[in-house]
């Protein structure tokens, strides 16, 4: 469940016997697996009794707050584990009303939720903190009717705003009630001081306050609370308030270090584009995530250099791009390349929203039909400096033909899913050559290459640096705001034995003409307690039986009765999706083998009840109906809470599915692998049905394997969007049914899905054109022997004039 | 009483601790499978009774004085503090020692005596920081502030002590019952079982964070180690009159995680149970008149 980013963080944990990174990950993941909604409650957890989550939280939280000085990384590590332990404990061992005691902000259960949020904030996981605040809002907060209740409410609202990154309300400070005790007056005053400090901090983050005084204010409150009788420090008389102040001080310190407002403006922001963007964005998203912070430190102001951003899915690549764009727009226009039309559309919508406060900035997509074939009717002859154009590489190659001079004023070229350069086939060649030509046509352009899958970002940075003369940085951070449990599904051995025996007996008793008896058996999940399944230690895996069943048959074959799992895959995926969805998950299911599978499985499912599709989705479906001339099949599926997304659908149908899932109208979306490419959809569970990707006649077996691995890892990355859930699950259902059990050796099982062993950033990206360039230089090109990629490259380059051709080749990755 | 003869809360507490250090003994009485029993002697001594009262009134006055400082922008001053002390004494002790109805007897047993017992436990822990005895097997480094309200949620007493090289978290639960020491011990064990089950997570984190200003810096990082390794000491303080067996194995205590050496029954036997509490209360009422804020 925990990736390399967490490994890196946990390396800074204090040295306490029994608390090392691997042990912590095992403990937390194992506890969370026990809380999986689809776990069969009749099958006991192999771990048995209580896990020491709250004890772990208490130990590490106190390590974070007690010392006067603590190294920043150790503080973050302690806070992260404490927050995660409390958060998992809230799911596994919820504090019931009977256990919760009256406490500051209501009761101890509620306070613990706030504490969890603050610890996440201290650890740098603000999206997780926001979810804690949302959980409290959903469960409306009411404080105890004490004398200081009004001040508690007022301060609580500020604390919740800090957790959720929202704006604190401007309500007036509550008055102290008449005839209160001295103690109540003291608590009232201290609470107001805390509330004021937090509100000032929030205003500062939003650039509404010039000075950040929160740390000094909170430190003063802490000092006053700990003043002793004789002027010496003493054990504090209001430890609940003091504890809150300690956590808030650390949280304000952490958020101060990551403030968007501290990103320096570009050298010539005369039009105020960046400062307006910064101010408007700080209202919604005032904090930088590590990728953006690292990018700002290395490439801004400017951008003055190229960057290759290799960070996990969901780690804030879009925010990096926005930051770069907001600065680059002061110096020219921006090109944003993305591999699919669906992604181009989503990026355009996101950028339009982000730059909405800037009326002079136009965001357009250069679009048309299929992403890599057809010409488009849109012209690109009028590109202003304040323009952001989003398109696929193929459309960009067209743009380069139509209006190459427009690229003179290009300031920034963002390449999303940049690992495409290293993939096989014509698209990779085109992407590489498009980038090369852009670098040639736009002498001052800075490139921003982004991907979750690149294993060698420094090589790409070196390429950019060598061919342009501008500095280039690799922005590499494995940090990710969410955690994804990797699981592999198979038939539970014990259950299969029982149900299989019964089916065999039944078939034995039937006349010989009966060839089959259908039956079902429970599905088990083998889960990894570390991140990637690289460990061969049994203790790093946990097996649980689910309450989901898969279909099998007992079949007569050569005079014997055997168990037959043919065709088990799609129904099993459907059942898993149904069960996860029934338990409140938002499920993204990939059926990459064939684009027809998605419709078949979705059709066969019960679904999640009739839903109101809403105006936007209905409008897309009306458009689809008009284009098809008949009713779109997608409408019926959406109507029962299931979306479908494949390349066999019209764009309007795809948009209807995307919107319905994005807006939470449907619980599940079935898709082929294309949806794995970058589209941000809010899933809390991913089910991958089969590890065989659709056939590509132009690829070799090895290339197929690499493509399949990248697509499946990307699919796993779709699970867990920070705004929806802190933890998520990705379940792989292999093409060939597995029989698994707690005793089965992991290495035997993982062969069914080898890609689970790898982290996402595992694709070495290299130029696909080296051989062609070398052959060309040797004047040894044989047209009949060229690969599809080389043919595409030839076609691309044939448009160029002589000098331009050599310049483009010189800037391609093959020259590095 | 003139202003010149008034004393401060700090002086009251210091004087009280001097007396407790000299006149009260805490010794191991028995050790068995489930726990270690300690006997506290000397509480009947009139000087100790007065010291207990001074400790408690000093604590109350100190807390009110600090609150007055914290709430000064709310127009709270010394006169409010003085009036507040009077109100708190009345609320905690009642106007006098007449308890002739069920309701007043309930007040006596569940509020007044319970709070005074908590104060005695605190006083013994604080005194252990100054002088060596068997209360805990090491020097006390820090003790939490007592609740000013007996019904306030949370843990009665929490202290840190150093046992050899190991920092240990001591949790005290005080009970007062004239005749039912054994029952109260079982009740206290129930609370400790909840600590074992981590049901007091928020309270423990909060109260230990509240010790931050007084934990010697070299020990701050050891607290987490103690908590993670369950290095805790449970101290049930049982104030009683009728003796109950100290050397008997107690299943309710043996089920708790700490070792027998770290489950220390603090048996505080008082010759005349109600006289003791009445005397402490009277002395407190008297002291409250003479406090300077």
Task: Report on the architecture of this protein.
The complex is a heterodimer of chains A (about 800) and B (about 290). Helices cover about 45% and strands about 15% of the residues of chain A. With about 800 residues, chain A is of the alpha/beta class. In chain A, the strands form three sheets. In chain A, strands 10, 11, 12, 13, 14, 15, 16, 17, 18 and 19 form a ten-stranded mixed β-sheet that branches. A seven-stranded parallel β-sheet of chain A has the order 5-6-4-7-8-3-9, with helices on both faces. The longest helix of chain A has 24 residues. Chain A is globular, with a radius of gyration of 29 Å. Chain B is globular, with a radius of gyration of 19 Å. In chain B, strands 1-2-7-6-5-4-3 form a seven-stranded mixed β-sheet. Chain B is about 45% helix and about 20% strand. Chain B is built from nine helices and seven strands. With about 290 residues, chain B is α/β, with parallel strands linked by helices. The two termini of chain B are about 15 Å apart. The chains are: A alpha/beta (about 800), B alpha/beta (about 290). Chains A and B meet through α3, β1, α5, α8 and α10 of A and α1, α2, α3, α6 and α7 of B.
How does the SSE layout of this entry go?
The complex is a heterodimer of chains A (816) and B (293).
Chain A: H1 4-10, H2 21-34, H3 53-65, H4 72-92, E1 102-103, E2 106-107, H5 108-123, H6 126-138, H7 149-164, H8 182-205, H9 214-225, H10 239-257, H11 273-284, H12 290-299, E3 306-310, H13 317-328, E4 333-337, H14 341-354, E5 362-366, E6 387-391, H15 393-402, E7 410-415, H16 426-441, E8 446-451, H17 457-468, E9 472-476, E10 483-492, H18 493-509, E11 516-528, E12 541-557, E13 560-564, H19 569-582, E14 587-590, H20 597-604, H21 614-628, H22 633-639, E15 642-645, H23 651-662, E16 668-671, E17 685-689, H24 701-717, E18 727-733, E19 739-740, H25 746-750, H26 770-777, H27 788-797, H28 802-811
Chain B: H1 9-23, E1 25-31, E2 36-41, H2 46-70, H3 78-93, H4 102-128, E3 139-143, E4 157-163, E5 166-177, H5 181-196, H6 201-209, H7 222-228, E6 232-240, H8 251-254, E7 264-269, H9 273-288
Parallel strand pairs in B: 2-7, 5-6, 6-7
Antiparallel strand pairs in B: 1-2, 3-4, 4-5
Helix pairs in contact in B: 1-2, 1-4, 2-3, 2-9, 3-9
